[in-house]
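Help needed: design a sequence for this.
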C-alpha cells in the first residue's frame, strides 16, 4: 500500500520517494516489518491462545522432554501469516501476478491448516482433517497455480539472450529501465522450460516428456507441466508439515530455503543479472524477492517464540502455508527441480516416513512381525530415540532436541550454498 501510495504521488517529487522504486529497499523494509510484526504481535497472540486454552495435545512417544510440551499453545502459524501479509501488503506491488499468486497460496493453505488445527483442538479429534480432505485442498491450489501459469499472458520467459557480450552501454540502460518498470522489450514467450543443474544452459523443457507432437503435443506438454506443479506444491506443503516436530526445526530450515529462493527471484527478474549468470530471465519475478524477504522476516520473528523451549507451535496453520509458499515460489521462478537439493531436509524427512511405513508393512506381511529401518519416523525423531531395534542403529545415544535442530539447520545451509553453486555447474 505504501508502494502504491508513493507511486500515485510520483509527480509531486516527495523527498525519499525514489527509494520505493528499488526492489532492494522494499525487500529490506518488508523483511523488517514482517519481523517486527511477528515478534511483537506474536506475544499478544500467544497470550490470547493461552487464555483460550488452545494447547497442543501430545502423544507419549517416550521422547525426552516431550510431555513437558503438553499444553503449549499451537496454531502459531497465524503469527507467520499475519507477518508475511503485513510486510507484503505495505511494500510489494499488489498488481504483480506473482505477488497475487503467492498471497492466494498463503491464505489458501493457511486456511486449510487452520481448519485442520481447529478440528484437532476444538473438536478434540487427534486425527484432524482427513488426509483426503487435506490433499484435495492442496491439489486444488496446485491446479489454480498451474492453470494460471499456463494461460496468463503475464507469465512469460525470455526465449534467447541478446547478442551483445558484454552488453553495450545503451542496452544496459534500456535493460535497467525495463527491469525497474516491469516492462519487457525482448523476445519473450509462453514456455514450459525450467531450470535443471548439470546440463548445458541449465534448461529442461517438459515438452520433451510429451509422447505427442503438433497441436496435441502442445496440450500434452502443458498438462504434464500442470501435473508437475500440483505434485511440487503438495509435496512441499506435506514435507514441511512432517518436518515440524522439533522446536524451531521447520522454522529455521524454511527461512534458509526462503533466502535462496529470494536470491533466485532477484536474479531471474533482472535482465542484466540473468544474462551475466546465463540463467532464465522471467519478467516481473523481482517482486517475488520482496515477498520472500517478508517470508524470511516473518519466520525469523516467529523463531523468537518458537526456539527451544518453544512458547508456541506453528501447527498445520503455519507448516502447510510455509511449505506451499516455498513450492509456489520455486515454480514461479522455474527452480522446482532444484527443490530436492535446496529442501533436502524436507525431502529426506518425507522419504523416511515413506520408507518406514512401506518396510514395516512389507516385513509384517512376509514375516508376521513388522521391522523398522529407523527407530522412529520422521527422521528427526530417530535421533531422539534409543533402545528400539532398527536397521539403522546410529547414533547409539539419543541426542538433545536443540542439538538435532541446529545440526539440521547446518545441513540446510550447506544444501543452500550447494544449490546456489549449481548455477555455475554445466
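Sure. Designed sequence:
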Amino acid at each position: 500500500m505504501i508502494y502504491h501510495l508513493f507511486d500515485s504521488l510520483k509527480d509531486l517529487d516527495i523527498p525519499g520517494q525514489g527509494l520505493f522504486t528499488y526492489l532492494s529497499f522494499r525487500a529490506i523494509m518488508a523483511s523488517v516489518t514482517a519481523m517486527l510484526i511477528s515478534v511483537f504481535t506474536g506475544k499478544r497472540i500467544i497470550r490470547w491462545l493461552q487464555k483460550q486454552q488452545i494447547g497442543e495435545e501430545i502423544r507419549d512417544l517416550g521422547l525426552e522432554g516431550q510431555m513437558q510440551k503438553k499444553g503449549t499453545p499451537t496454531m502459531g502459524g497465524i503469527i507467520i501469516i499475519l507477518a508475511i501479509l503485513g510486510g507484503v501488503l505495505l511494500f510489494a506491488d499488489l498488481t504483480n501476478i506473482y505477488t497475487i499468486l503467492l498471497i492466494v497460496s498463503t491464505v489458501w493453505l493457511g486456511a486449510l491448516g487452520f481448519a485442520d488445527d481447529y478440528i484437532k483442538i476444538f473438536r478434540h479429534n487427534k486425527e484432524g482433517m482427513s488426509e483426503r480432505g487435506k490433499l484435495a485442498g492442496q491439489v486444488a491450489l496446485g491446479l489454480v497455480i498451474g492453470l494460471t501459469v499456463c494461460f496468463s499472458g503475464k507469465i512469460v520467459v525470455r526465449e534467447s539472450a541478446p547478442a551483445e557480450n558484454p552488453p553495450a552501454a545503451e542496452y544496459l540502460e534500456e535493460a535497467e529501465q525495463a527491469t525497474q518498470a516491469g516492462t519487457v522489450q525482448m523476445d519473450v514467450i509462453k514456455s514450459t522450460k525450467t531450470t535443471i543443474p548439470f546440463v548445458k544452459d541449465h534448461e529442461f523443457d517438459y515438452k520433451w516428456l510429451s509422447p505427442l507432437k503438433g497441436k496435441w503435443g502442445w496440450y500434452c506438454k502443458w498438462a504434464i507441466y500442470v501435473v508437475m506443479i500440483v505434485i511440487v506444491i503438495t509435496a512441499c506443503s506435506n514435507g514441511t508439515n512432517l518436518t515440524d516436530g522439533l522446536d524451531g526445526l521447520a522454522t529455521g530450515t524454511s527461512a534458509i530455503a526462503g533466502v535462496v529462493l529470494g536470491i533466485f527471484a532477484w536474479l531471474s527478474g533482472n535482465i542484466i543479472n540473468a544474462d551475466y549468470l546465463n540463467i532464465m530471465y522471467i519478467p516481473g519475478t523481482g517482486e517475488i524477492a520482496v515477498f520472500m524477504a517478508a517470508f524470511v522476516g516473518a519466520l525469523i520473528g516467529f523463531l523468537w517464540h518458537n526456539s527451544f523451549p518453544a512458547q508456541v507451535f506453528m501447527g498445520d496453520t503455519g507448516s502447510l502455508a510455509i511449505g506451499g509458499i516455498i513450492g509456489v515460489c520455486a515454480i514461479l521462478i522455474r527452480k522446482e527441480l532444484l527443490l530436492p537439493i535446496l529442501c533436502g531436509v524436507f525431502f529426506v524427512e518425507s522419504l523416511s516416513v515413506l520408507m518406514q511405513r512401506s518396510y514395516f508393512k512389507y516385513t509384517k506381511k512376509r514375516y508376521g512381525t513388522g521391522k523398522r529401518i529407523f527407530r522412529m519416523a520422521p527422521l528427526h525423531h530417530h535421533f531422539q530415540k534409543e533402545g528400539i531395534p532398527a536397521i539403522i542403529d546410529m547414533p547409539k545415544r539419543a541426542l538433545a532436541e536443540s542439538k538435532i535442530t541446529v545440526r539440521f539447520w547446518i545441513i540446510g545451509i550447506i544444501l543452500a550454498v550447494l544449490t546456489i553453486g549449481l548455477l555455475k555447474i554445466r
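DSSP finds 15 helices and four strands in the chain.
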